Amino acid sequence: MRNREGAKDLLTEYYEKVGGKPKFAPKKSTPGEKKRKAQSASSTPAETKGTGRGRKKTKTDGDSEATPEVSSQRNGKEDKWEPPKGSWDDEVMNIDALEELPNPNTGERERYAFVVWNNGRKTHHQIRVIHQKAPQKVRTFLRQLLLTRVLTSYR
Hints:
By secondary structure, this protein is of the alpha+beta class.
């Protein structure tokens, strides 16, 4: 209770500074839409989801290496495709292989991961990009690789 002694005054002072206490207007529901409970005071409009479908968009660094444009052929047509922005964990089916290849710009050898996407496309990206964009898939791939090597060494 001692910690709360000046809390009300501080809160009132804060509301005066920011222009008043926030007011939440109830959302008008449309026919066919389920009614939801009122928002809690701790949530903000940026945190709430629309209809509960789809994925929440996240900001990325904007690194051009992180999302390279990939050309591929499908049905005899060449088309351009870019990996999604944000996390790739839900979009990647699996990591197929790891390989060390020379970087075409610098000539130095760098490690790349070959990625199989849910839409059937296959791309390769630097390991540091895969660690950032799809950490769970990297963990799964490395776990399977380790188990395979351990099990084959006992035979």
